[in-house]
Specification:
Largest sheet: 6 strands, parallel
Strand content: 15-25%
Order of helices and strands: EEEHHEEHHHHEHEHEHEEE
Number of strands: 11
Radius of gyration: 19 Å
Length: 257
Amino acid sequence: MATLLLRGQPIGSIQGVLFDKDGTLSHSEPHLLDLFERRLTVICDLWRETKGGRYLSELNITLRQAFGIRDKALHPGGTLAVAARQDNLTSTATVFCIFGCSWPEALALAETCFQRIDQQFSDDGSSRPLLDGAKRFLEDLDKAAIPSAVISNDTTKGIHTFLDHENISSLVVDCWSADDQPRKPNPEAVHQLCKRLQLLPHQCALIGDAETDLQMARDAGIGCVIGYLGGWEIRPDLPTAVHQFEHWNELELEADP
């Protein structure tokens, strides 16, 4: 057991910490913006092939709104920032329906778009670097024998690619991904991950940058719910967070005697 300190003040005793990944541990905004632009190019090309370019300008605008693109920034609560790949695919298909597709046609178009991007775009983890100070905190947890785990809507492969690239795999004992069921933000995802850590939710902290994650943590009975604000150009709105911080250096660990 150890005590978490936020800006030098104790905020709770913990035996484990659950971390979101994108926007919390990793600086993901540039990668996600690039991914969206690549998807948009493929979508527009495919739309021209199948629909002759009708409504193309309106489609472009609607897709940007749907995925949370705000000028050259990404809304931290938007679909692209928070949701799993399958949810983003479903959102794309829904937009296609707005512009006249049947649901089977829209879903087939969306799946084709995402498959083309998968073939063209490989991710070695380098485009989502670890946020400054996060590794130091993970190392502090490791030294205190406090297990760390990642709970993310990225795939298992995506999580491990990131951890391996940043040389922190040895500091994270487990993960819960979009490949696991149920996915977050279902509170049962927290319960199952805590069970694998052999801990109860109230013995853990959860640190995340999305309101859905923090609401999930509260509903799951997590003992210390902490919002991270420093991972996005647009500051997240996290009303559920009992505690909030902007830089990993604000969070410290004090091992209990």
